[in-house]
Write a structure and sequence with these properties.
The protein is built from 4 helices and 5 strands, in the order H-E-E-E-H-E-H-H-E. The chain has helices spanning 2-16, 39-43, 59-63, 65-71; strands at 21-24, 27-30, 33-35, 49-53, 76-80. Strand 2 and strand 3 form a beta hairpin. InterPro entries: Endo/exonu/phosph_ase_sf.
Length: 85
C-alpha cells in the first residue's frame, strides 16, 4: 500500500502530460511500460549536473528566459568557454 501511495502523484503528473497511466496492485504503468523509480532519487541523493560551452557569455544570455529556465533545472552548473588560436 505504501508503494501505491508513492505512485499516485507520479500517475497524476503523467496523466496531466496526456500519457496513459494506471496502477495495478503495487505497479505503475505509463504508456504501457512499467514505471520503476530510481532508488537514489527516492533517497534524495541525486545531484543533477550540466556543463555548457557558452561561446562568449554575454548579458543577453543571462537575461534570456530560456537560458535561465534551462539552468534552473540543475544543482551544479559548469559554464566553460574554449578558445582556439
Amino acid at each position: 500500500m505504501e508503494t501505491r501511495q508513492k505512485f499516485i502523484p507520479v500517475m497524476k503528473k503523467a496523466r496531466e502530460e496526456n500519457k496513459e497511466a494506471f496502477l495495478r496492485v503495487d505497479e505503475l504503468f505509463i504508456d504501457r511500460r512499467e514505471f520503476k523509480p530510481n532508488a537514489l532519487e527516492e533517497q534524495g541523493s541525486v545531484v543533477k549536473c550540466v556543463t555548457w560551452n557558452v561561446e562568449g557569455l554575454t548579458a543577453d544570455k543571462f537575461s534570456s528566459p530560456e537560458f535561465v529556465n534551462m539552468l534552473s533545472q540543475y544543482d551544479i552548473i559548469f559554464l566553460t568557454e574554449t578558445w582556439t588560436n
